[in-house]
């Protein structure tokens, strides 16, 4: 048992993901949102009480409920498939055949190892094979997959796979540059480092196309 705990701590501290899909149980949506909020509220109350906080204080009285609602309705709302954005696509009637790049899409996610924020920017590109997608939908796809306990590698892959399916093409790429507060605020406490992940599909695997995309984004991300 101790060995398993040490192994799991090592996996979490090294930010190693276990699956390309978010690990959800089969009964993940058996409870309603309101039922989940009630359960989480009690759990947060117990955590704060165990830490020695005075939950009769006016500043803390509402914290368990606020945290529970935030988990279910906001920062982990992307777990709910009912909130998946509809990827509206259109015929490429103007015959635009070059790369389309959406830069600097804000990423707010949560590291699944320590439940601390991941904050950064995503850069997404595709080459149309006859279909285009609304620009705002690209932002919403990033937001949807970010709003769940995540690892950055998985998030990058999920964004690409979702756009590939919506657009009917393999020619999709994504680069994410983000800070992990589990690295910046604990452990090694390195406040300067950021993590860059990439996923390239179709033509973006070719050196010329990939370089063109990377030249567009230049990775001069500022937070």
TrEMBL record:
Gene3D superfamilies, A to Z: 1.10.286.10, 3.30.1130.10
Key words, A-Z: GTP-binding, Hydrolase, Metal-binding, Nucleotide-binding, One-carbon metabolism, Zinc
The keyword GTP-binding is annotated on this UniProt entry: yes
Domain GTP cyclohydrolase I residue range list: 40-217
Catalytic activity from the UniProt record: GTP + H2O = 7,8-dihydroneopterin 3'-triphosphate + formate + H(+)
Record GO terms (molecular function): GTP cyclohydrolase I activity
Keyword field contains Lyase: no
InterPro entries xrefs: GTP-CH-I_C/QueF, GTP-CH-I_N, GTP_CycHdrlase_I, GTP_CycHdrlase_I_CS, GTP_CycHdrlase_I_dom
Functional pathway: Cofactor biosynthesis; 7,8-dihydroneopterin triphosphate biosynthesis; 7,8-dihydroneopterin triphosphate from GTP: step 1/1
Residues engaged in binding Zn(2+): 111, 114, 182
Highest taxon, organism lineage: Bacteria
Group of enzyme by EC: hydrolase
Catalytic activity, EC: 3.5.4.16
Subunit record text: Homopolymer.
HAMAP family named among the record's database cross-references: FolE
Annotated family: Belongs to the GTP cyclohydrolase I family.
Alphabetized NCBIfam families for the sequence: folE, PRK09347.1-1, PRK09347.1-2, PRK09347.1-3
Protein name (record): GTP cyclohydrolase 1
């Amino acid at each position: 048992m101790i060995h398993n705990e040490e192994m799991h701590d090592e996996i979490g501290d090294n930010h190693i993901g276990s699956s390309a899909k978010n690990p959800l149980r089969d009964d993940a949506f058996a409870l309603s949102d309101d039922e989940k909020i009630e359960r989480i509220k009690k759990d947060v109350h117990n955590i704060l009480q165990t830490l020695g906080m005075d939950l009769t204080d006016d500043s803390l009285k509402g914290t368990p409920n606020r945290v529970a609602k935030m988990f279910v309705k906001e920062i982990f709302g992307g777990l709910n498939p009912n909130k998946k954005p509809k990827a509206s696509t259109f015929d490429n009637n103007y015959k635009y055949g070059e790369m389309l790049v959406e830069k600097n899409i804000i990423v707010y996610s949560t590291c699944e190892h320590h439940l601390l924020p991941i904050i950064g920017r995503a850069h997404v590109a595709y080459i149309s094979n006859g279909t285009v997608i609304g620009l705002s939908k690209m932002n919403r796809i990033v937001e949807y997959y970010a709003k769940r306990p995540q690892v950055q590698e998985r998030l990058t892959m999920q964004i690409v796979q979702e756009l590939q399916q919506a657009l009917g093409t393999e020619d999709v790429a994504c680069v994410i540059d983000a800070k992990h507060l589990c690295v910046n605020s604990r452990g090694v406490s390195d406040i300067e480092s950021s993590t860059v992940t990439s996923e390239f599909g179709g033509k973006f695997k070719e050196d010329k196309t990939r370089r063109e995309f990377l030249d567009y984004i230049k990775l001069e991300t500022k937070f």
